[in-house]
Amino acid sequence: MSVGFKEAEPLATKIVSMYDLMEKQLSKEPHYMFQMRELKAVLRAAGQIKTKSPQLNETSVCIKAIRDMNLAKLISDDVILFDKMFEDLFPDCEEPEVNMDDLQIALEDCLDETGR
User: Fold this and answer.
1) Which of 28-63 are b and which e, b meaning 16 or more Cβ less than 10 Å from the residue's Cβ?
2) Cβ within 8 Å of residue 80, ≥6 positions away
């Protein structure tokens, strides 16, 4: 059930706390969903990230999963609060960097081809 996480219990507590904070403190946008279904999706994503990147520490895996699954749907005013929540719940841990160079090059090439 813990997908190989050794620190499953303390991380689970932090993840549930994060979702509770998001539900209570972020604005009440109609597209925001922070219930059990979304929590389960984050746990599945964390398991996939851990499998694909075993070198990452478990806290970084959880941070990446939560951010990947939620950041894109947040309005700009809530992103600042979302980041503050991470700082409070996960002090001394940063989100792992993602190399987007290939994507950026492909996008720039596509824009050049279309003349934009």
Assistant:
1) eeeebebeeebbeebbebbbebbeeeeeeebbbbbb
2) none
pTM value > 0.85: no
The four Cα atoms 55, 51, 38, 18 give a dihedral, to 10 degrees, of -20
CATH number corresponding to 8-114:
1.10.8.710
The pLDDT tens digits for 22-37 are 999 999 988 888 888 9
Q: The tokens of 115 are what?
A: 């003349």
Cα→Cα distances 9→2, 80, 110, Å:
9, 27, 45
